[in-house]
């Protein structure tokens, strides 16, 4: 059945205007005034914004780290995503040393297939290098996975050396791939962790001390040099510091193609939380993530970077571990606390409230940062990431007048806390369409079975 959404204000990365939308067979088929079709379903969007479905290109669902598995699997994680206005996620396939990339991909397919409530894609992690890995990178691109990830931290498990980074960058240039990088100096981190332990510093408040700004800045600077030698674009995930941002800005001004991502936690939460009175009862373990929360001066720099278009994407790095039974595994040793926090459900509404409504970013930038840029960089545009004739009917109707408060009790995430507890919110996701299916109605999921599909992404061509 044809659906017509009437009376709303359409907002894209470049425009904002009043018009009706006509949807059929999963696509937007018409945009204009006073659209009509007999027997069509009508949705009244008066006094509401109409946004393209958000895209979160950085999630970790059903991920095992040490003795813990994330609280959110693909079912609960994508339910939370769609309730929050995110209609597509791209999750990271975890590649273990010794296995093939295809083996790792098959593991993640089993985790996701038939369980996702929004559309999904994968990035492929590379944790070692050999001729088979090089060949399989092309396999991944042929299978619609043109993006990869390498870690400059987590020694012995994921960390790769500079020569491997160069080889992978050269290979990605040959085959149309883009590599994302976790930029922290793993050797420096390991040294600093052991230094704190020798002082008998085991509290979670020492987590950020073991990962100072210089850890990120050094890795970003080194990566930029490696990418320059390789002559290949790079993508930096979850950038958190003013020093690292400065490195990327300078390189961009010199002509390097660098894409930068940050996350709501680095824009809204600061390192004073590690010194909170809760540190006496281990509560600050909730904020143990990597990179850690930073200082207010870093937050200010990141917002300025967003406003001036030096940062390309706001993702979440959603990696949810329960406080009870999981974070508490590090009760006697902060280095054993599973790293990560939840966020996929709350990203869009947080950025609307604490970005748009505070004039830190424009409403068009909100769309760019949470949807359009990700679609362009990761091979989904214009199928997704915008509202245009021919695009997938992934649509969010946003009611700007509703008032609420974020609490763990009312979230969809399965995790037992939220780092945004008590944040006041104006506006809510009223309706969500996924490829034309009306699956969120008046902020409630109205779906008996999952409809999410794997999305094949085109090889990297630049934004």
Automatic annotation (TrEMBL):
<dbReference type="InterPro" id="IPR011778">
    <property type="entry name" value="Hydantoinase/dihydroPyrase"/>
</dbReference>
<feature type="domain" description="Amidohydrolase-related">
    <location>
        <begin position="49"/>
        <end position="436"/>
    </location>
</feature>
<protein>
    <submittedName>
        <fullName>Dihydropyrimidinase</fullName>
        <ecNumber>3.5.2.2</ecNumber>
    </submittedName>
</protein>
<dbReference type="InterPro" id="IPR011059">
    <property type="entry name" value="Metal-dep_hydrolase_composite"/>
</dbReference>
<comment type="similarity">
    <text>Belongs to the metallo-dependent hydrolases superfamily. Hydantoinase/dihydropyrimidinase family.</text>
</comment>
<keyword id="KW-0479">Metal-binding</keyword>
<dbReference type="InterPro" id="IPR032466">
    <property type="entry name" value="Metal_Hydrolase"/>
</dbReference>
<dbReference type="Pfam" id="PF01979">
    <property type="entry name" value="Amidohydro_1"/>
</dbReference>
<dbReference type="InterPro" id="IPR050378">
    <property type="entry name" value="Metallo-dep_Hydrolases_sf"/>
</dbReference>
<keyword id="KW-0378">Hydrolase</keyword>
<dbReference type="GO" id="GO:0005829">
    <property type="term" value="C:cytosol"/>
</dbReference>
<feature type="modified residue" description="N6-carboxylysine">
    <location>
        <position position="149"/>
    </location>
</feature>
<dbReference type="GO" id="GO:0004157">
    <property type="term" value="F:dihydropyrimidinase activity"/>
</dbReference>
<dbReference type="InterPro" id="IPR006680">
    <property type="entry name" value="Amidohydro-rel"/>
</dbReference>
<dbReference type="GO" id="GO:0046872">
    <property type="term" value="F:metal ion binding"/>
</dbReference>
């Amino acid at each position: 059945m044809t659906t017509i959404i009437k009376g709303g204000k359409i907002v894209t990365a470049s425009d904002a205007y009043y018009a009706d939308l006509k949807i059929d067979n999963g696509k937007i088929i018409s945009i204009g005034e006073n659209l009509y079709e007999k027997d069509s379903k009508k949705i009244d969007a008066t006094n509401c914004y109409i946004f393209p479905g958000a895209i979160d290109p950085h999630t970790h669902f059903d991920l095992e780290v040490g003795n813990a598995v994330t609280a959110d699997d693909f079912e609960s994680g994508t339910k939370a995503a769609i309730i929050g206005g995110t209609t597509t996620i791209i999750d990271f396939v975890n590649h273990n040393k010794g296995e093939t990339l295809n083996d790792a991909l098959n593991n993640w397919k089993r985790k996701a297939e038939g369980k996702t409530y929004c559309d999904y894609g994968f990035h492929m992690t590379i944790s070692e290098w050999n001729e088979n890995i090089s060949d399989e990178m092309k396999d991944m691109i042929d299978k619609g996975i043109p993006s990869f990830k390498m870690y400059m931290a987590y020694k012995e498990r994921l960390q790769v050396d500079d020569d491997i980074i160069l080889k992978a960058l050269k290979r990605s240039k040959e085959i149309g791939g883009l590599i994302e990088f976790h930029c922290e100096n793993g050797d420096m981190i390991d040294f600093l962790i052991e230094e704190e332990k020798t002082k008998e510093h085991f509290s979670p408040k020492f987590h950020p001390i073991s990962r100072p700004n210089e850890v990120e800045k050094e890795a970003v600077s080194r990566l930029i040099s490696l990418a320059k030698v390789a002559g290949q674009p790079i993508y930096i995930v979850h950038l958190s510091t003013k020093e690292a941002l400065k490195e990327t800005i300078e390189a961009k001004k010199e002509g390097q193609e660098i894409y930068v991502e940050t996350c709501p936690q680095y824009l809204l939460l600061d390192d004073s939380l590690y010194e909170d009175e809760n540190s006496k009862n281990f509560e600050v373990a909730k904020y143990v993530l990597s990179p850690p929360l930073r200082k207010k001066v870093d937050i200010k720099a990141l917002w300025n970077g967003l406003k001036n278009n030096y940062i390309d994407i706001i993702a979440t790095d959603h990696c949810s571990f329960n406080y009870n039974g999981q974070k508490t595994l590090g009760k006697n040793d902060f280095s054993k606390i599973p790293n990560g926090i939840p966020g996929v459900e709350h990203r869009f509404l947080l950025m609307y409230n604490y970005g748009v409504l505070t004039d830190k970013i424009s409403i068009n930038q909100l769309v760019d940062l949470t949807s359009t840029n990700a679609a362009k960089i990761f091979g989904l545009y214009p199928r997704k990431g915008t509202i245009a004739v021919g695009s997938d009917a992934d649509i969010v109707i946003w009611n700007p007048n509703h008032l609420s408060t974020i609490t763990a009790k009312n979230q969809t995430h399965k995790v037992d806390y939220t780092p945004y507890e008590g944040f006041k919110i104006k506006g809510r996701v009223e309706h969500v369409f996924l490829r034309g299916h009306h699956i969120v109605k008046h902020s409630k999921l109205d779906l008996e079975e999952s409809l999410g599909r794997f999305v094949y992404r085109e090889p990297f061509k630049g934004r």
